[in-house]
Amino acid sequence: MLQEGAEAPGFSLPGTDDAGSELREYSLADALDAGPVLVNFYVFDFHPQCTDHVCSLHDVAWFELDDRLTVFGISTDRTFSHSAFAQQEGLTFPLLSDSDGNVAEAYDVLFDEFQGHKRIAKRSVFLVDTDGTVRFAWSTEDPTTQPDWGAVKDAVDALDAAA
Hints:
With 163 residues, this protein is an alpha/beta fold.
């Protein structure tokens, strides 16, 4: 897993808009121009544990209060699956398709094989500041484990305090 203090690998990926209805290209560099970015890798759309994980992020209302913070959900599923998943769950942040697993691999959070599927992202959360530095890093190999969202909020608050 990429560690805190490391430079976040850049990416440009196709994804859903914040309503899940339109598809477009997103890049980390463009998002960092507006403020810090929360990069949230998850295993699969519609997987019960991933639904819990991604929807728990949706339910953490504090990130919606900081309009400088961009949130990306990333998995190796395709954009059409992301669109259906975002609409079903009422997600208000983009879901990006890392269909070849190269971005998850760059963040060192890639399963070579998970439940018979090749090159799948591990459940992981990274907070990237506007300089492109990772300020919070968390990952697990157990898709039933949730991150400590309080620790993520503390990291976001620390960025706000330093600004």
